[in-house]
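Protocol step 4 of 6.
Sequence for Redoxin domain-containing protein (Pedobacter gandavensis) entered exactly as in the expression construct, tag removed. Do not edit the line below.
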Amino acid sequence: MLSASFQSCPENLSGGVTESTKLKKKKMRLILTLVTLLLAKVGFAQMSEIRGSIQNGTQKDISLFRVTDGKAEMIANTQLGVDGSFGFLFTPLNEGFYAVGYAKLEKGALFPFYLKKGDKAEIQIDKRRMQFVGKQSPENTILSSWIKLTQELKVKSIYFMELPLSTYQDFFPELTRIAAETHDFRKTIKTKNENFNRLMTALTYFDMDYYAMHFLRTPRKEFAKKEDYPAYYKSIVVDGKFKNDDVLSTLYGEALLVDYADFAGGKTTNIDERLKFFSTDQQKGVYTLFRMTPFMQSYPQYEGMVKSYGKYFGSESLKKRVDELGAKLYITSAGGKAVDFTFPDQNGKMVSLTDFKGKVVVLDIWATWCNPCKKEIPYLKKLEEEFKGKDVVFVSISTDELKDKGNWLKMVADMKLGGVQLYAGGFVNKVTDFYKIETIPRFIVIDKEGKLVSPNSARPSDPKLKAMLETELTKAK
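Step 5 output, structure tokens:
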């Protein structure tokens, strides 16, 4: 009996492990194992799979894309198998359109599919054409039919070098025919997924408009006159064309907005006039960035864009793009505003860049373990002496890790380092992050107004730094 087992086991009296306890622990481990397996199964069920093969191709890899702001954003890449096969297993962040494609080829080399968590899709690619293989989700069954209907139109529109070369004489009749069939096709979009039904219906309009307008923008052997355009072109421009941001959930959404603004705007190139064609801030932000980014050569230009159009960059994705553009211009062009910072000196006093407004600032990003940094110290001391009494301040920022802070304090004292000595707390800090600093020493020159003179200047051992400082002091007069 159970009671007898307690009486016969000395361990029971001294706090040992009983047979009952062992059994309970065994059951608990079994339960935990089952729960772990169940959770793993649930997690795996949330993953989506896209696989396929490429025929008649020469490329060695293929990429997976998601849609961000109306264009493809690469999220993964994989090598092709010897037979051209590939596969991606991932958890989609959002339900919607995804694509695989050739990362190094033009944007048209994208092959779309629609995914929800747990969906599977298989496709076969032959150069610039695709087809779904086997049983598909209800959404991809509809998408597959759309691709079959419009694929040749897409190829003729986007791949103007595809043989046989297409001209308006063969494109216009096909555009007219498919436009007529599209009306009936929309009636077949009746899945249980209302989100897909809405996006897919919108996509039929977006794709047709994009193929029609893009055809007119590409080089051709023969160009049509406006009087040769089929009736479809008269239906493209309408007030309030893009009532919501569904267009930015499609692979060619950004390109469509650009083509539409050009097509509807005619000779009007003023960006403010073009923005009137769009309904939402997101659309206006995407169009503005597309048009203005290629011409951004300096941070002041960037500031002007943000001042004029910043209200359109409210979404998380656009904010990220704008911030990345600003950071790039900060570190690649003079005239940009230097990033402010606050670090302690050797006595613990907090010092900020703004404390030196009205002076030319030389930042020295260094560390005690960096031999090239230490080699610059004698030249830096000499430079400090030469500019003594002038409106120039030398600020050295140590990137030593916390464990080496003592080494920094000792070196500052032993070598009687001059200027302003600050401790950033490690290599990863606001300054190194902002200027994307990967190697030290790094010297940065900032003018009296807090603007960059050089984000990556010559070192003190190079006479060019002294000349730059003298020039800045002359300018200030």
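Step 6, annotate. The radius of gyration is 32 Å.
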